[in-house]
Design a protein that fits this description.
The complex is a heterodimer. By secondary structure, chain A is of the alpha/beta class. Helices cover about 35% and strands about 15% of the residues of chain A. In chain A, the strands form 2 sheets. An 11-stranded mixed sheet of chain A has the order 1-3-2-6-8-7-12-13-11-9-10, with helices on both faces. By secondary structure, chain B is mostly helical. Classes of the chains: A alpha/beta, B mainly alpha.
Chain lengths: ~475, ~60
C-alpha cells in the first residue's frame, strides 16, 4: 500500500496555509489518517486511532475558519497524544494491561487546552508500559518501530509520539518526560522535543511515573512548532498544585532573536563519556555551527555529576512503586516483566535512600545555580548512541539511553533535543540544549537559530511505502 | 542489608514471582551501590527542598 505525501512539512507551515485558507483542516486531517492507515501495520505508533472524532473536529475547525473565527496557530492542526493522558470517553491504557479497559470521564488539562486551541486529536500513542522505560518495546501492544529503521527501537517512553511525528502521521504530539522520555525518542527518531521546566505545564490527568520529576511537553518537527504547542499548553492549573503560577511568554515572538553573545557551556565530565564517535562528532559540529552564528562556546564543570543520575533513578523508582503498589499486590501478572522487575527493585531500596536522593537533588540545584551565572545554555549529546536494535537487553539499553537526560529531570530545568546529524547507517543523532529554570524561550530560540542554519530536522525517513519524498 | 529480596517484598505485601527471583537477586548489588553512591556526595546540612505556597490574600 503506497502512502500519500503530507501536503506540508511543519506545523507552522500548515498553520499559515490554514489561516490563508489555502489548505483545509479536513484535507490535512484526511491526509494524516491515510498515512496512519498505511503505516501503522509497520510502525505501531498508535494504540487507539479516533478517526471519526478527528474528522468531526476537522469539519468544525473548517467551519470556524471559514467564518473567520481563528482560535490561534493550532486551529485545524492534527495532533496526537501519548496514551498516558486522560481523554474523555476514549480509553487511556498507559500502554498497560492493568488499564486496558480504562475510559476517563474527563480530559487531562493539556488535552483540554489543545482542544480549546482548535487542534484535531487523531488518537492515542503507544509508549513504554506506564512510561517506565526508554525503549517502547511494549509487551501488551507491541513494540513501536523506528521510522528510520524498522528493526530498531523508537526510544521511549514516548516512542509512539516520536515515531508518529517522524513518519508524518501527525504534525505534533504530546509526550511526558521523567528521565528523558520526550528527548530520547526525539533524538532517536530525528525530531525536536522539549521537556519544559518542572511545573511549567500541568500534569493533571496524566498518569504519573514519578510526581516530583514528571513533565509534559511537545514533540514536533521543529523548535518553532514546539514553541507554538508549548504556548497552548503551558501555565497554571487549579487542578495541579505543581503547575507554577509563572507567566507564560510569547515564545514564538522571540524565536528570531538569534544566538549572538549567548554563552553555551559544554560539560567536561560525564556527558561525553561512552558516547559513540559519530554521535560526539555530530554534536561537536553542531557547536561549531552555533559558534559561527555568534555564540560563545566554553567548557564547564557540573558539580555532583557522579551521583546525579543515581539520585534521579532512586527517586523515580521509589515514587513509581508508591503509585503502583496496590495494583502490583493484586495483579502482578498483568505487568510486563521489565516494568514489574523495576517496581520490585524499588521495593529493595531502604527509605533512607529516597530521602538522601532528595537531599542530593537540593544540593545539586544549589551548586548548579552558580554555574548558570557563567552560561546561558548547556549543550550535550541527547543520547550516547543512536537507536539500538529492537532485540536487546532492556534494562541496560534504558540505563544507557537516560544517562544524559535524567540529570535535568533532577534539576527541573528545560531541555530540548533536536536533530544534528546522522550516523553512517542513516540513523538520527540528537543535540540536547539545556536552559535556566523557566527560560524555555532561550532554549527554543537557540534551537530555532540552529535549524535555520541547517536542514537535519527536515530530512524525512526513507519509508518504503511513501509515494514520494514528503 | 537483607539478602533475600522475597522477604523485603513481602513486607510491602508483595509476592515475588519465581521468574523474577534471579534477576532481582542480581539487582541487590545495584541497590547497595546506589546507596553508597548517594552518600559519597558532601551535602552538608542540606535537607530535601519543601516549600508551601502562602495562602492568597482575601478581600
Amino acid at each position: 500500500m503506497s502512502v500519500p505525501a503530507l501536503p506540508v512539512r511543519t506545523l507552522a507551515e500548515a498553520s499559515q496555509l490554514l489561516a490563508r485558507r489555502e489548505l483545509s483542516p479536513l484535507e490535512l486531517t484526511e491526509s494524516c489518517l491515510r498515512r496512519i492507515e498505511a503505516l501503522e501495520p509497520h510502525l505501531n505508533a498508535f494504540i487507539t486511532v479516533t478517526a471519526e472524532e478527528a474528522l468531526a473536529a476537522a469539519r468544525k475547525a473548517q467551519e470556524e475558519l471559514a467564518r473567520g473565527q481563528r482560535r490561534g496557530p493550532l486551529h485545524g492542526i492534527p495532533v496526537a497524544v501519548k496514551d498516558l493522558f486522560w481523554t474523555a470517553g476514549v480509553r487511556t491504557t498507559a500502554g498497560s494491561k492493568v488499564l486496558a479497559g480504562s475510559v476517563p470521564q474527563e480530559d487531562a488539562t493539556v488535552v483540554a487546552r489543545l482542544r480549546r486551541a482548535g487542534a484535531v486529536l487523531l488518537g492515542k500513542l503507544n509508549l513504554h508500559e506506564f512510561a517506565f522505560g526508554a525503549t517502547s518495546v511494549n509487551p501488551h501492544y507491541g513494540p513501536v518501530r523506528n521510522p528510520w529503521d524498522m528493526g530498531r527501537i523508537a526510544g521511549g517512553s514516548s516512542g509512539g509520539s516520536g515515531a508518529a511525528v517522524a513518519a508524518g502521521e501527525c504534525l505534533a504530539a504530546l509526550g511526558t518526560d521523567t528521565g528523558g522520555s520526550i528527548r530520547i525518542p526525539s533524538a532517536l527518531c530525528g525530531i525536536t522535543g522539549l521537556k519544559p521546566t518542572f511545573g511549567r505545564v500541568s500534569t493533571y490527568g496524566v498518569i504519573p511515573l514519578a510526581w516530583s520529576l514528571d513533565c509534559v511537553g511537545p514533540m514536533c518537527r521543529t523548535a518553532e512548532d514546539c514553541a507554538l504547542v508549548l504556548a497552548a499548553i503551558a501555565g497554571p492549573d487549579a487542578h495541579d498544585r505543581s503547575a507554577a503560577r509563572v507567566p507564560v511568554p510569547d515564545y514564538a515572538a522571540h524565536l528570531g532573536e538569534g544566538v549572538k553573545g549567548l554563552r553555551i557551556g559544554v560539560p567536561r565530565e560525564h556527558f561525553f563519556q561512552g558516547v559513540a564517535g559519530e554521535v560526539e562528532a555530530a554534536v561537536r559540529r553542531a557547536l561549531e555551527v552555533l559558534s559561527e552564528l555568534g555564540a560563545q562556546v566554553l567548557e564547564v564543570s557540573l558539580p555532583h555529576m557522579a551521583v546525579v543520575p543515581q539520585a534521579a533513578g532512586t527517586i523515580t523508582l521509589v515514587e513509581a512503586l508508591a503509585y503502583h503498589l496496590p495494583w502490583l499486590r493484586e495483579r502482578p501478572q498483568d505487568y510486563g516483566q521489565d516494568v514489574r522487575l523495576r517496581l520490585e527493585m524499588a521495593a529493595l531500596y531502604p527509605a533512607v535512600a529516597y530521602v538522601q536522593a532528595q537531599r542530593v537533588r537540593t544540593a545539586t540545584v544549589e551548586a548548579w545555580r552558580d554555574l548558570w551565572q557563567e552560561i546561558d545554555l548547556l549543550a550535550t549529546p541527547t543520547t550516547p548512541v543512536v537507536a539500538p536494535p529492537l532485540e536487546g537487553a532492556e534494562l541496560p539499553a534504558t540505563l544507557a539511553l537516560i544517562r544524559n537526560t535524567n540529570p535535568f529531570n533532577l534539576s527541573g530545568q528545560p531541555a530540548i533535543s533536536l536533530p544534528c546529524g546522522f550516523d553512517g547507517s542513516g540513523l538520527p543523532i540528537g543535540l540536547q540544549l539545556v536552559g535556566r529554570w523557566w527560560d524555555e524561550g532561550t532554549v527554543l530560540r537557540v534551537a530555532h537559530a540552529y535549524q535555520r542554519a541547517t536542514d537535519w530536522h527536515l530530512r524525512w525517513p526513507p519509508l518504503p511505502w511513501d509515494e514520494e519524498g514528503t | 542489608m537483607q539478602d533475600d529480596p522475597g522477604v523485603l517484598l513481602s513486607r510491602l505485601g508483595l509476592r515475588l514471582p519465581p521468574e523474577d527471583e534471579a534477576p532481582l537477586q542480581a539487582y541487590m548489588v545495584l541497590v547497595v551501590q546506589a546507596l553508597d553512591s548517594l552518600y559519597s556526595v558532601p551535602v552538608g546540612e542540606t535537607g530535601p527542598a519543601v516549600t508551601f505556597e502562602a495562602p492568597a490574600a482575601e478581600g
